[in-house]
Amino acid sequence: MPIVIRDTTVVTSDAARTVRHDASIAVDADRIVAIGPREEIDRRFPAAERVDGRGKAVFPGLVNCHTHLWLTVARGIQEDFGFPSTLRFPTTVQAMLSAEENAVFAMLGALECLRGGNTTMLEIGTRVPDYAKPVAATGLRVVFGQTSRPGTGRRRGGSPAWWRLTPRQRAHRNCSAGRASWRSSMKLAPRSTSIRVTGKWSR
Hints:
The N and C termini lie far apart (59 Å). The protein has helices spanning 38-44, 77-81, 99-115, 132-136, 167-171, 195-202; strands at 3-11, 19-28, 31-37, 49-52, 57-58, 62-67, 118-125, 141-146, 180-182. It is built from six helices and nine strands; from the N terminus they run βββαβββααβαβαβα.
């Protein structure tokens, strides 16, 4: 059944950046199908569910181009004690979580993003496979970035985990009907690498 948001302010993303006041917007499934005056939209969609939009605005989905959903677990620590934390914990909060617990906190972050109007994001984390599938199932458009650095995330035998995608990452490479994807690339952060490592990759 279509949904019509009536008597609202519609902020469009057309070339003219048009803002329509006292307008109605009709949504059918996952598509915006009409925007116009209330009388016109009511006439075209008589059986639609109606939502009062007075005093509100409808925006295009926002894009969060750098986020860490899993850091929801550290809420109050990062804000109050900085990054890296001045508390000098022997380990991170995330390191003490199981994969399921990590996914729960990532999902909380994802749902808060949706509630705030974000529909697209770049998620960066060190344990992305723990929560890639449930986050993608929310309907968010996500690019997952698995991060690591020299000296961390090593596999058995000493092979660095950041050389290649793991089987779990490959399994989620294009999950949720293509709304979520993996990007495998190598970036060298000047303050996080040594001359030896940088030289190796420059060759």
